[in-house]
Design a protein that fits this description.
By secondary structure, the chain is of the alpha+beta class. It is built from four helices and six strands, in the order H-H-E-E-E-H-E-H-E-E.
Length: 154
């Protein structure tokens, strides 16, 4: 799954998975994800198709701003597994999990304006599009304008 995710030109821009990752690079990325909670960054999860017993994607809840009651979420589905509802299901589960984190009041998503599929995923998972867009720094250090979606603790 990690190697396939790395073939999507956009996915490596949003995190530490290199474009067209080798087996070693993909395994190193998985190791980094497994350490996210211990290092205090948040939670990183594989998205698994249980009937096929295989990973189809990745999602994370990032707690850098937890002291302000805020977390960010992200998700990515392997190209061959898209359009099956996995992202929306994962985001729903991730959000439910987020509400168990003490002090967390809001979860925010930053979505590229051109990424209509991701915007639909956010809406299917109950996130509400905010009026303003935000400049958001992606992993490469570049700043891009993003559409902001938000879920508020019930």
């Amino acid at each position: 799954m990690a190697r396939e995710l790395s073939t999507d030109p956009y996915v490596p821009q949003t995190g530490s998975l290199p474009f067209t990752a080798s087996n070693e690079e993909a395994n190193a990325w998985i190791d980094r994800q497994q350490g996210r909670h211990a290092e205090g960054a948040g939670f990183s999860f594989a998205i698994v198709w249980t009937a096929g017993n295989r990973a189809v994607g990745h999602c994370g809840l990032w707690l850098r701003d937890l002291s302000s009651g805020l977390a960010t979420a992200g998700y990515a589905i392997a190209p061959s597994q898209r359009r099956r509802g996995y992202a929306a299901d994962a985001l729903l589960a991730l959000t439910g999990f987020g509400w168990t984190v003490p002090g967390l009041a809001r979860i925010v998503l930053h979505v590229e304006p051109w990424n209509i599929a991701s915007q639909r995923t956010a809406e299917r998972a109950g996130y509400v599009r905010q009026e303003a867009t935000a400049d958001h720094r992606i992993f490469s250090g570049e700043t891009r304008e993003m559409v902001v979606y938000e879920a508020v603790r019930p």
